[in-house]
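Action item from last meeting closed. Structure (316 res):
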């Protein structure tokens, strides 16, 4: 719902800014129009991400399509840079080169900026409310949630709405200073600042989704809780290795290498693995797939791989 609201708002704002930019001749207003177009494209891509990532697992994709959400969110970051930041840079440099251009009707531009700020504020407050709710459900702070969240859609909406509010203030400042001083340098500088703002926004989102696509481990709190449950299992003597990977929003792949009690028979070992996996899945619903592998703790190859990955911290 947050994405749909943001999509409708950004589409309306983009049209208003484009008209105001043409009437006023303001580079900053045109840059903001490009900004809203980029946001509209972003929301469309996020809708595609939400729909395509919910498809069930099949033969070709046995772990499901959860990472579709990360892929389309990455494209959204690219869209913000290409259709927003680059356009703002072009308009800004053009304004700096053509300083003698006359300023047009600024009244319409101010009205659009004010209306756009109100609409963006509504979208931003809705995104903040959703983030707070989800952070509270995860029993964590908003800052930690935004850093570790495996759903990039809400974070993308919050970040682009924050950038939109700042961009509107920059456009207002550029427009006003141009009118007061008669120098179009301020208008061009505001457009360039909007371009920098969008480039930073695109980088943050791209970096976030890059980590998710590569295969980031699950939240540290979840990993620690799972590790504690595994070492407490009566059949387990040593937890040799523990691997987790996000396969989608709210979906985690778990692989644990365990040294079981040598007194267990083959049937006992099978039942132990089934029971442990069932208990983990019941306690941690986000564990989508669980693999438990019996291994000897003294195996040198496995120990070397664990030490190379975690160092001695895993054994502490």
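Sequence:
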């Amino acid at each position: 719902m947050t994405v749909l609201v943001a999509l409708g708002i950004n589409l309306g704002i983009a049209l208003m800014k484009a008209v105001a930019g043409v009437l006023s001749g303001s580079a900053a207003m045109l840059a903001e129009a490009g900004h809203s177009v980029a946001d509209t494209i972003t929301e469309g891509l996020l809708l595609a991400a939400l729909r395509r990532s919910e498809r069930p697992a099949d033969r070709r994709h046995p772990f499901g399509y959860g990472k579709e959400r990360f892929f389309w969110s990455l494209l959204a970051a690219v869209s913000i840079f290409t259709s927003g930041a680059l356009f703002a840079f072009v308009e800004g440099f053009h304004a700096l080169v053509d300083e003698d251009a006359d300023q047009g009707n600024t009244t319409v531009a101010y009205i659009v900026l004010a209306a756009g700020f109100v609409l963006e504020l509504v979208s931003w407050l809705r995104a903040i409310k959703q983030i707070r709710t989800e952070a509270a459900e995860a029993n964590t702070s908003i800052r930690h949630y935004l850093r570790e969240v495996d759903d990039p859609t809400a974070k993308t909406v919050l970040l682009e709405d924050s950038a939109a509010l700042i961009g509107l203030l920059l456009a207002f400042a550029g427009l006003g200073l141009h009118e007061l001083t008669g120098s179009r340098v301020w208008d061009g500088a505001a457009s360039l600042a909007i371009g920098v703002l969008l480039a930073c926004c695109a980088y943050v989102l791209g970096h976030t989704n890059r980590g998710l696509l590569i295969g980031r481990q699950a939240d540290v709190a979840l990993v620690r809780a799972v590790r504690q449950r595994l070492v407490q299992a009566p059949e387990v003597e040593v937890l040799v290795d523990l691997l987790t990977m996000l396969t989608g929003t709210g979906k985690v792949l778990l692989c644990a290498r365990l040294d079981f009690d040598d007194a267990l028979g083959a049937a006992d070992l099978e039942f132990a693995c089934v029971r442990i996996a069932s208990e983990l899945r019941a306690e941690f619903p986000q564990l989508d797939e669980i693999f438990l592998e019996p291994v000897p703790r003294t195996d040198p190859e496995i120990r070397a791989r664990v030490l190379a990955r975690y160092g001695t911290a895993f054994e502490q």
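Note appended to the action item: The radius of gyration is 26 Å.
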